[in-house]
Specification:
The protein is built from 5 helices and 4 strands, in the order αββαααββα. It is of the alpha+beta class and 161 residues long. The radius of gyration is 20 Å and the shape is flat.
Length: 161
């Protein structure tokens, strides 16, 4: 029911001209001015961002290794020592998050995480001289997403790690 209200409001206010795409159960917002903002942010600290980006790749591999170890250890605990098994839950507002404070904190944290995470992707792309066509966010039912959309031709031409 709520989605029907969102669709009616979006269609009546002509949100499409502001970069919104509304489909059955999904809302996508694309902004074409993201590239200019990222280049301005990059202009001050190119060397620091390059070092941070390189360290982030290393940290990412270390965290993936830890996550793999944790999941493998947790699955083995499920079969061998159930007292040490840690239950994992996917966070879905209204399904696994049911209290108002938990949903509020979850919904407040998502934009912060998305802006920082996707902004970092965009800044590194700008550092590598890859133009960002659009950036934005999407909502699919109760799942949230953020994105920066690089120019595919420039992305393919960019140097590989």
């Amino acid at each position: 029911m709520a989605w029907v209200v969102i669709i009616i409001i979006a269609k009546s206010l002509k949100f499409e001209k502001y970069g919104f795409e509304l489909k059955a159960y999904s809302l996508v917002y694309k902004n074409k001015g993201v590239n200019d903002v990222l280049i301005r942010l990059l202009g001050r600290t190119k060397r620091g961002i390059r070092v941070f980006a390189d360290l982030s790749v290393i940290a990412g591999f270390i965290m993936m290794g830890f996550a793999f170890y944790f999941l493998l250890n947790n699955v083995s605990n499920y079969f061998v020592a159930q007292d040490n098994f840690s239950e994992l839950t996917v966070l879905i507002p209204g399904v696994t998050l049911t209290s108002a404070p938990a949903i509020t904190y979850f919904l407040l944290s998502i934009p912060i995480v998305l802006v920082i995470h996707e902004g970092a992707h965009g800044i590194v792309a700008a550092l590598e001289k890859i133009k960002i066509k659009t950036g934005g966010f999407a909502i699919f039912i109760a799942l949230f997403a953020g994105f920066v959309e690089p120019d595919e031709e420039e992305f393919e031409k960019a140097k590989k790690i």
